[in-house]
Amino acid sequence: MLAWWRRRRENRRLQTLHLTAAHWEAAIADWPVAARYQGEARARLRELSLRLLLRKEFVGIHGLAIDDAMRLRIATMAAVPVLELGLGWYDDWVTVLVYPDAFIPSHDREDEFGIVHTDREPLTGETSAQGPVLLSWADVQDANGEDAYNVVIHEMAHKLDLCGAGGTNGAPPLHPGMDPAAWAAAFTAAWEDLDAREAAGREGPIDPYALQDAGEFFAVVSECFFEAPQRLAVAWPDLYGQLRSFYRQDPLNGS
Ligand SMILES: [Zn+2]
After folding, report:
1. CA 120 from centroid of its chain's CA atoms
2. Could you give the CA distance from residue 221 to residue 191 in angstroms, rounded to a whole number?
3. I need a labelling partner for 65 at 20 to 30 A (CA). Which of 83, 169, 229, 231 fits?
4. Domains of the chain
């Protein structure tokens, strides 16, 4: 479909949407990250959230009833990483499956060596190339800006990563002017620092789950970038700078 045609149709649907600014404000009132966006940026974030809500399908699983406030909350958290990038980065997928709590995926998991795992560890979120985004609603509600945890931003970072070549490998398409070597160097240095801290039993700025692979590392630092930017900027200023260039936002300085 032509982009202008989609936008015109979407604009009409936006105007007839029964969700008001007050509904949106109420849905995200207790998410501290949203308070960072004020004035013009807040208006854009709200509009982007509503457009996202119109473009995606939200499905409750295991009997979970999804209301507008839940949809708005998830859509807003998903809109934050692409506020300065555009919704086009999410064009490859449509469906958000929302589980009441941590869930056991119904499929087997294949690792990087092609070994299929049938162990059933509960997950808080999951996604795949062009596949739906799976989220635990209990975990969506756990994002509080303090522990750098946000399952929606985590899964959206995977989606951005998947826009590049090679699957979720911590290498999303970089913008013109960004240096892939500088990106890789900042990520490698942070990885090695976290790995060394883990080996020494010292706490790092992010969840050590990040050390699973480069894709998880990018997703977990993206959570920290938006939820607890100070922590990331202090520990790994180069990495913070790379993420600031990629997301075209500077959460530490309120933008
Ligand atoms: Zn992940």
Report:
1. 24
2. 10
3. 83
4. 13-253 (1.10.472.150)
Q: Ligand 1 centroid vs 5 CA: distance in angstroms?
A: 34
CA of 39 to the centre of ligand 1 (A): 32
* pTM higher than the cut 0.85: yes
In the reported structure, the alpha carbon of residue 56 is separated from the centroid of ligand 1 by a whole-number distance in angstroms of 20
The Å distance, Cα 168 to ligand 1 centre, comes to 9
User: From first to last of its 255 residues, what are the pLDDT tens digits of the chain?
Assistant: 567 888 888 888 888 888 889 999 999 999 999 999 999 999 999 999 999 999 999 999 999 999 999 999 999 999 999 999 999 999 999 999 999 999 887 666 666 666 665 556 788 999 888 889 999 999 999 987 778 999 999 999 999 999 998 889 999 999 999 999 999 999 999 999 999 999 999 999 999 999 999 999 999 999 999 999 999 999 999 999 999 999 999 999 876
Residue 20 Cα, ligand 1 centroid: separation in angstroms?
Answer: 33
Residues, CB within 5 angstroms of ligand 1 (ion): 216, 219
Residue 161 CA, ligand 1 centroid: distance in Å: 11
CA of 9 to the centre of ligand 1 (A): 34
For residue 141, report the distance from its CA to the centre of ligand 1, in Å: 17
